[in-house]
Amino acid sequence: MAAQSRVDLRIDPKTIEQISGLQLALAAGFDEKRIDKALQAASLYAAKGQVKPVKNAAPVKTGRLRRAIWANPVMKDKPGAYVGIRAGKSRADTKGAYYRYVVTSGVRGPRRTKNGPKEIKQIPGRPFVSDTVSRNFDTILRMFGEGLSSILERGIPKRGGVRVRLPKPR
Questions:
Q1: How far apart are CA 7 and CA 61, in angstroms?
Q2: How far does CA 156 lie from the centroid of its chain?
Q3: How many other C-beta atoms can be found within 10 angstroms of the C-beta atom of residue 4?
Q4: Which residue spans within 21-168 are E strands per DSSP?
C-alpha cells in the first residue's frame, strides 16, 4: 500500500462519548448542528497542533516540502480535519510541493514512456506525515479534549464560527 501525503484526523463516536464535556453539552440542550460546529473547531485545533511536529519530521529541513505542510478542515464526513502537504497549483507555485507524492510514497523501478520502457532509479518512500501523526495520537486526543472543553465553557454560538480560545498549539 502506498503512503499518503495527507492524514485525516477523525474521532470515532466511542471516543467522543468518553469525553465528559460533550455529555455536558448534550445535557445542556445544544442541538446537533451546534455540537458539530464545536467538534469541527476542536478537530481543527488538534490538527493545527501537529503541523510543527510534521514539519520537523520532513526529510529536508528547508524548502518547499516543509513550507507546504498545513492543517485544514475536511470538506466531507464532518467533523474532522487533516494534516497534509499542499499540492500547489503548478510547479511555479512556491506555496505547494507538487512532488509530495514521490517523497512520501517513493518510486519503483522501470516505467513505460512513449518511446518504450525507461529505467528509473528506485526511490524509497518516506511516510513522515502518517508516522508523525500516529506517534503523537495521544497528544492529538488531549488537544481535542482541551479545545472542546474550551468551546463548551464559553458556549457554542448559533451563528458564526467557533474558535478555540487557548494558547496556540506548540
A1: 20
A2: 23
A3: 17
A4: 69-73, 81-85, 106-107, 111-113, 116-118, 123-124
Q: Which three cell numbers stand for residue 25?
A: 453539552
- pLDDT tens-place string over residues 92-125: 888 899 888 888 888 877 777 778 777 777 888 8
CA–CA dist 100, 160 (Å, integer): 35
Each domain of the chain, given as residue ranges in start order, spans 6-87+129-154
- How many helices (H) and strands (E) would you count in the chain? 8, 7
Residue 9: enclosing H or E segment and its boundaries?
strand 6-9
Percent of the chain at pLDDT > 90 equals 26
Q: What is the DSSP string of 104-145?
A: HHEE-S-EEETTEEE----EE---HHHHHHHHTHHHHHHHHH
121-152 pLDDT, tens digit per residue, is 788 889 999 999 999 999 998 998 888 888 87
Write down the residue that cell numbers 494558547 correspond to: 167
**Cα distance between residue 102 and residue 59, in whole Å:** 12
The answer to whether 136 and 53 have CB atoms below 8 angstroms apart is: yes
- For residue 147 the three cell numbers come to 479545545
